[in-house]
Amino acid sequence: MKTFVTGATGFIGASIVRELLKDGREVRALVRKGSDRSNLTGLDVEFWQGDLCDPASLKQGLDGCDVLYHAAADYRLWTREPADMYRVNVAGTAAILEAALEAGLSRVVYTSSVGTLGNAGDGTPGSETIPVSLSDMVGHYKKSKFLAEREAEKLAARGLPLVIVNPSTPVGPLDIKPTPTGKIIVDFLNRKMPAYLDTGLNMIAVEDCARGHVLAEKKGRIGEKYILGGDNLTMREIFTLLADITGLKAPAVRLPYVPVLLAAYINDGLSRITGKEPLIPLAGVQMAAKFMFFDSSRAVRELGLPRTPVKEALQRAVDWFRLNGYARQ
């Protein structure tokens, strides 16, 4: 039986496809008309043209499949039309999971985000069980993913054999857009990162994140969620690792939060007028007010989540960005 993968052309999705192919699985990838398929070049994958906003194409695409990995999402820190993000992330998730329930699939893995989970923000790692609400979500991306996760839980309650995974911040090859974190790496490589905010992230090798998805299908408890994370690092520690890898200087100036937040508000206002993406995304600055540290011990204990050293993942990301022309050699 085939495995259906949404978001297969993206950063995490393309890595999931590779892990499935390693396991000898047949993969059918949902692709939108005109989408960039370069992340899947040369792979033995069946392409299915459709759209999360077209339920009929989803039902047809799932025909003959037994497992679904729903990794597609609109991941941006700024959008001029927030409704588009909610249409993809919330309504699209509900549509594909409803189709999976109707198709009687044996297992579904839904890619959520650690951004939907509770986190004190003071450096204490968040977990799958800390209470959280929509009002805790910063920005439309996190809000839309929070609401999408609620849709997934509703379908699980109706009998969908679903496991939720909450990736932290994956790094590594195939970050074609790139993601906001990938852009930080690219800006560092291009000497466009003179300073930093005092914040922190949990980072995981994208290959480990993808393997975590496959392990969730095989070993995850239906209806449960698992943080797919690695090491908790401050921004200063991340830049120190990048400096060690590249020989470039890490930014030495730590910016005060309030002036940067004010600049982000100004940038956001200008972007609403011009329609151009802000240089300083407001949601990104607001997120930086918290240390986004997380505890992935449940996934390690129950799934066997691998733990590649983050420095190795950053090295692979640097190599890939340089090889593909994103950054200076």
Please summarize the sheet with the most strands.
Answer: 7 strands, parallel
Order of helices and strands: EHEEHEHEHEEHEEHEEHEHHEHH
Q: Radius of gyration, Cα only, in angstroms?
A: 19 Å
Q: If helices are DSSP runs of H or I spanning 4 or more residues, what is the number of helices? A: 11
CATH architecture of one domain: 3-Layer(aba) Sandwich
Element layout with pairings:
Layout: E1 2-6, H1 11-22, E2 26-31, E3 46-49, H2 55-62, E4 65-70, H3 82-103, E5 107-111, H4 139-157, E6 162-167, E7 169-171, H5 180-189, E8 195-197, E9 200-205, H6 206-219, E10 225-228, E11 231-234, H7 235-246, E12 253-255, H8 257-274, H9 282-287, E13 291-292, H10 297-303, H11 310-323
Parallel strand pairs: 1-2, 1-4, 2-3, 4-5, 5-6, 6-10, 7-9, 8-12, 9-13
Antiparallel strand pairs: 9-11
Helix pairs in contact: 1-6, 2-3, 3-4, 5-11, 7-11
Structural commentary:
- With 329 residues, this protein is α/β, with parallel strands linked by helices.
- It has eleven helices and 13 strands.
- A seven-stranded parallel beta sheet has the order 3-2-1-4-5-6-10, sandwiched between helices. Strands 7, 9, 11 and 13 form a four-stranded mixed beta sheet that branches.
- Helix 3 (82-103) links the parallel strand 4 (65-70) and strand 5.
- Helix 5 packs across helix 11 (310-323).
- It is globular and about 55 Å long.
- The N and C termini lie far apart (44 Å).
- The mean pLDDT is 93.
Brief overview:
By secondary structure, the protein is an alpha/beta fold.
